[in-house]
Amino acid sequence: MEFTIGEGRAGVSVRSVREPHAVAQVAPVAPVAPVAPVEESAGQEVRASSAARVRVQMFGGLRVTAGGCSAGPRQLGGAKPRQILVALLLRREQAVCKASLVGLLWGDSPPAGAMSTLEGYVSLLRKRLDAVSPGLGTAVRTVPGGYLLELTGIEVDVHRFRDLGAGARTRKGAEAVRHYAEALEVVGGTLLPDEHLDWVDDARVGLGTELLHVLDEAAEAALAAGDLDRAHRWARRAIGWDPFDEKAWRVVLECCGRRGLHAEGLRAYDECRRIFAAELGCTPGPGVRETFERLLDSVRKVDDDPLAALVDAVVRLHLVISSPDGTSLVPPGRGAGGPGGFDEEDDWRLLERFLSTARRRRVGRSPLSA
Length: 370
Fold this sequence. Notes:
Elements: E1 33-34, E2 54-57, E3 63-66, E4 69-71, H1 79-90, E5 96-97, H2 98-106, H3 114-132, E6 140-143, E7 146-149, E8 154-156, H4 157-169, H5 173-186, H6 198-224, H7 228-241, H8 246-259, H9 262-279, H10 286-301, H11 306-322, H12 344-363
Parallel strand pairs: 2-8
Antiparallel strand pairs: 1-4, 2-3, 3-4, 5-7, 6-7
Pfam family, one: BTAD
Keywords: DNA-binding, Transcription, Transcription regulation
Domain OmpR/PhoB-type: 44-151
């Protein structure tokens, strides 16, 4: 199963991977590739911790970088040593017993002598890490009954994402927004796209849930701080993950209302309503509907602008005629009988007056005057 971190819905596919039980002969250590210089856009801050001498990337693919050297999946000793490293990385500075590692690597069908084979793979992994940075292999520590990855001096992007998100929750205003922005910038792609194992799939799903939670928090924090661009962008990104995320829909509608983008807000509610009706057979929840009511109030306040009133009337009528059951989308109590609400007939009359006026002027205009 593949779970992509990024915009859009997650796709799911199943791929079975068969590996021989016999330990293959270890190929010579591949040379470690130098790291190309990274070009930074103007004004972009370098946010990685300056204390880390080694950086491990898991988003977008596994890569270990130190100084001028970088090792990708092929340089880390093959599938099994790489999977051992992944298992230790996902369990942040926690010991993993050998029996658990055997289960992760071979499932219910371990080869004969699996413990010895595991120890051989760990030894190979240490050598490959030493090739990236001398002494790095000692980070894979042997503990009673298993192994632990010591992360002193090592920065892991997944852990950094979680730390920045946690730090943002303890801050307020623009400072919180800045920390959320840093956390979301760390997420650069799919978590470990080259690994197709059930336990890695589970990690992808779990991290995807965390990402959605951070996006919701970030959008709400940006909205509270008045950073409407980020609030709208992060909310839309969350909706790309989960179209039924009502927190994100509320932020989108609120941003449209504060910006005066009433027609865009009405279209966004129409989009939300259609998704809920098609997939769940229901309307959005009360929180979304209440935010939509406030948007309608803000539309009413600008109705002294003839052009704005006409555009909004057209959008509202579009919502009515596009509704599956032909009913108005204005919340109960906000229509013709509601105080300060909208009368669908008023919208029709406004549109008819506009069309009638346009026709009269067109008829009274000669081809030469046109």
